[in-house]
Amino acid sequence: MPSLILLALVGLAAQLVDGSLGMAYGVTSTTLLLAIGTNPAAASATVHLAEIGTTLASGVSHWRFGNVDWKVVLRIGVPGAVGAFAGATFLSNLSTDAAKPVMSLLLLALGVYLLVRFTLKGLRTDRQHLPLRKRFLAPLGVFAGFVDATGGGGWGPVGTPALLASGRLEPRKVVGSIDTSEFLVALAASLGFLFSLGSQGIDFTWVAALLIGGLIAAPFAAWLVRKVPGRVLGSAVGGVIVLTNTRTLLRSDWVGVGDTPTEGLVLAAIALVWVAAVTWSVRAYRLDLAAGRGAATTAHGPAEDADAPGTSSHAPQAVDAESASPVAPRA
């Protein structure tokens, strides 16, 4: 029972992060399952089965809050489903541990770009009227879906940064569209695992625990993403990507300093930079908001003081609609 409660809490926390940042449900949940000895294919299958329910709930919540671009959902979700099915079939027969450092390096570079871009320059709005093209979304969907199925998570870490970096969709709609399209990816990946593995190694009680936690968090996460400013959200997403992928690289055979004081120091330093970046983004957002209010006040002019010289504290004179000249009020 304690393990099921822990799984439910992990599902809740993972969905809260995923629903507000567009990533991390699969990564968080799969990490826990691997830590307790589940084999990679069964862990990914368990998480994706739970995600069928959590992504459906998350998608409905994001839709209700106006966070979804349905054209983007279809153009990236359908290719993503194809990639996820292929990835599930591939993982069922082959480990992809050797590919993790390469993937982490690419995601780390993109995470650094987002962290710097949103922290120092804020949200790019000059391209948001431009449509996202199929020739960009389709390959991205296939690639992200494949990575998601083989790595137990990756749809958000690949898809969210790419759409944010394009500058053609506001952050809350990026998160909402990625989360909604993930339903198709989770469904296809689950079918791929079931066809290849059957139910071998899948504990459906664990699936239910993860699902319950995610369902509880989904509506609140969809509401939260509307309240977080785009600039702050971009910095937060960038920090998540940098921190998680640095950890993966440090523990890879390329670097080999996992579970050492060096790893702790590096991650602590990145965490401090991340906190400073988000703090800076919040401060910059408030300054921009104050400047915008000041500009609006200047444009409309200050309100007249009723007691100021040259003004009357009595009721204003009536104006004749046709002559626009003052007329005496009738008794």
From TrEMBL:
InterPro entries: TM_pro_TauE-like (IPR002781), TSUP/Inactive_protease-like (IPR051598). The keyword Cell membrane applies. It is a multi-pass membrane protein. Its main location: membrane. Residues 298-331 are annotated as: Disordered. The chain crosses the membrane at residues 72-92, 98-116, 136-155, 204-225, 264-285. Keywords: Cell membrane, Membrane, Transmembrane, Transmembrane helix. It is found in: Cell membrane; Membrane. Belongs to the 4-toluene sulfonate uptake permease (TSUP) (TC 2.A.102) family. This is Probable membrane transporter protein. It comes from Cellulomonas iranensis.
